[in-house]
Amino acid sequence: MILQVGNVRRPNNEAVVTPSYSPIYDFTRRVEAMRIRWEVMGRVVNFPVATQAITNSEIIALGNAFTTPNPFLALLGDDGSPTPFEMNPAKCLQGPNLIDLSFPTEDSDVYVTGLSYRATFESVQLIRSSTDLLEFDEEVSEDPGGLTYVYVGGAVNYPERQVATQNKSFRYVQSGSATGLLAYPVIPPPIWPFAQMSAPRVVRSSPQFKGMVDTHFRVTWEYNFEWHTKLVGVPHRGIIG
Predict the structure, then answer these.
(1) Helix (H, G, I), strand (E, B) or coil at 138
(2) Strand-pair partners of 36
(3) For residue range 197-218, what is the model confidence (pLDDT) as tens digits?
(4) How distant is the alpha carbon of residue 240 from its chain centre?
(5) CA 126, 127, 128, 129 torsion: positive or negative?
(6) What ranges do the domains of the chain cover?
(7) What's the CA gap between 159 and 155, in Å, rounded?
(8) 193 phi and psi, to 5 degrees?
(9) Alpha carbon distance 238, 30 (integer Å)
(10) In this structure, are residues 3 and 11 in contact, taking their beta carbons and an 8 Å threshold?
(11) Spatial separation of the C-alpha atoms in residues 3 and 206, rounded to whole Å
């Protein structure tokens, strides 16, 4: 197999690549994207001529290729034909990024004949083109109404319990947050539109930029309600539509 890094093709069978895949789920446990990691192990071999100068130039060329920002990575067949294994930055939300690069050596190694190397690359690739939710959370809090009491006195004698209001209004707050992968989610509708006191307070946070596109668009919301009788309702489980 041939390892291609950017426009550079390493010699045939110089490197061995171990790819691994970690799914990224939305809040409904559907796979939205895949985190791909390549562990690359290889050895620069000077053949048929072995000199330290050749090793130096090969290591410099290898480092330049590996440290290129978001390099195109691919495993090719012995004849240079493409295989399913590639990290194409045009298809990545993040990366490919070089995580680490090392040159492990052993007592038996001779620098003039070559040098071993290890490199790790990581990228995130979108599986489904959508704005599905990565996270969603909503809660409803209640300020009880109806008959309420207060205690008065108590400076000298025991405080007395008295009626404060006979029909205090019921107040509710519907609040939550959601994170979309590629766009801001639409906030859910009010649970009790007839008791809504004002337009909802909406806050949109800056998306994350870790690669080729913006991701993780987070929005929070808050509705305030007030009604003369007790209302019954539950938080949304997710955003519909």
Answers:
(1) strand
(2) 21, 123
(3) 999 999 999 998 766 778 889 9
(4) 22
(5) positive
(6) 2-126, 133-227
(7) 8
(8) -60, -30
(9) 14
(10) no
(11) 37
